[in-house]
Prior knowledge:
By secondary structure, the chain is α/β, with parallel strands linked by helices. The chain folds into three domains: about 1-155, Rossmann fold; about 180-410, pyruvate-formate lyase- activating enzyme, CATH 3.80.30; about 470-565, no CATH class. It has helices at about 20-25, 45-55, 70-80, 95, 100-105, 120-130, 140, 215-225, 245-255, 275-280, 300-305, 310-325, 340-355, 370-380, 400-415, 420-430, 435-440, 450-465, 475-480, 510-515; strands at about 1-10, 35-40, 60-65, 85-90, 110-115, 145-150, 155, 185-190, 190-195, 210, 230-235, 260-265, 285-295, 325-335, 360-365, 380-385, 390-395, 525-535, 545-555, 560-565. Helix 9 packs parallel to helix 10 (about 275-280) and helix 16 packs antiparallel against helix 19 (about 475-480).
Amino acid sequence: MKLLLTTLLSKYIHSSLALPTIAAACAKVPGLGIVIREHTVNERPADILRSLISEDADVAAFSCYIWNIEQTLRLSAEMKLLNPGLFVIFGGPEASYGSHDLMSAHPHIDAIVHGEGEDTMAEMMQLLVASSGSAIPDDRLSELQGITFRSGDEIITTGARLNSDSLDSSPSPFATGLADLSKPLVYIETSRGCPFSCAFCLSSIENGVRTFSFPRIEQDLEILMEHGVETIKFVDRTFNYDAGRANRIWEFILTHNRKSRFHFEIAADLLTDENLTLLKRVPDNTFRFEIGVQSIAAETLDIVGRKTDLERLFANVERLQEETGITMHLDLVAGLPGEDFDGFVRSLERLIAVKPHHIQVEPLKLLKGTAMRKIARERNYTFSPFPPYRILNTPWLTFGDVCRIEDCSEALEEIYNSGRFETSLEMVAQHHALTPLFTLWSPSKSKGSRLSVIFEQFLNHLKKVFPGLTESIIEPLRFDYCMNGHPGHSLPSFLKGKDEPEAGLIRPASQKEIAKRLSLARESRFRTFSARFARDYSTAGWPEGDFRITFIYCSSGKILHLVERVLM
Length: 568
């Protein structure tokens, strides 16, 4: 018998952790062959169907999430039409809740696995192999805990399966060689559950935290680091819930890492002085911390059951910014109870003030199974009945407000998170709060991918928001433009000064002289571009003068600069 494990990922660079974990658990079933196939939501549906049907599987199990459930339903239904004998199983968070309604609406689904699926899937596969392709007797399926199945015209849900206290009992997808380590980003889990009970999060449904043993964690990490995985992302909901445990894992990484980068979701207010001391040793751009602030309104956080010491959170973020080279990513959830648009703006302003590397803003999604759905009913929320269940309005936000927040999220991505406009934003911040740049954003109907188009659109937007900065912004914007890649023969006309020589035609130092002054290797290959500036934007404090800045674009992708004063 052949089992096909499949899912539709949101991006190609991602890889599934659920599928190889299930495969490792089912590998012990005699007579069962297993194949894993990952596709993305961006591929042509016809191509995905052709690929999966070609596997000629007896059983197809789909991992379902808010970003893929609608396409998965269509894909699995078409597979069933082509192969009526195919046994179709759904699992994952988008199938685990409301399973009776899902199976009623979609008769091609034969069974749904709830929650953690390792043991349930292994037991179901044993029954399917034993049945030799015949229907499994209802009495045998009824004995399986944690499933919903079809019995004639009836849909039956069995008793809930208790989660195992020993996570190590599930075979490692990495030690078994079943995980795809060729992707740029590979997920790992070292714990399940969360110490908090935030009403908007699925992790709040499970009580407490369970952890893998340190030998298992270290074994899995060693495999990933030895393989040279580019980015290892921990899916632990609150990685540092135990400060001592976090330090032990971080210490292991610092000792054994070769060239990987690591992404953690942490609660910044739980960081201890011991944590912060150790984190000073992390090499630049090796760790990335994702920190959920969600809102700075204490009453709002209290309503959704989120316990956060905001003062300590921001103090620790500032220490991380000042004392470490860790990349900081801060999150807000807009639309929580009691927070109107002005409240959202205050939360955004507070995040901008600590200058994280990235800020993510998302309107609230009312996920299946979360306590937030009950709160939404009680407080008269309106939300979409279709995935991803985004809010449409709340007692505090109109639909227009929600749209403005979505535009603000796009602006943060384009302007702040892209890193294209670092010098320009620093200059604006010397005169104004940055928030209006994001909250007054109007998405362009004609988006361009060319750098000159992107920069001109930003300049036009800035002129509307802060018209008094039109003249003074040109030079910082010109510096940013040059720091984003070689401008070609010359700069775009909108970035040139009034009485300035043709930028790019200014005579730079010779390549030999540049290589010598910057101590570059003799075989180094690079291009140059020179322009005149009234400030040296590469130096702290931006000293004034008449400068020729030569930008050196190395073949490695690194951009250096050589600054020279122009003598009159």
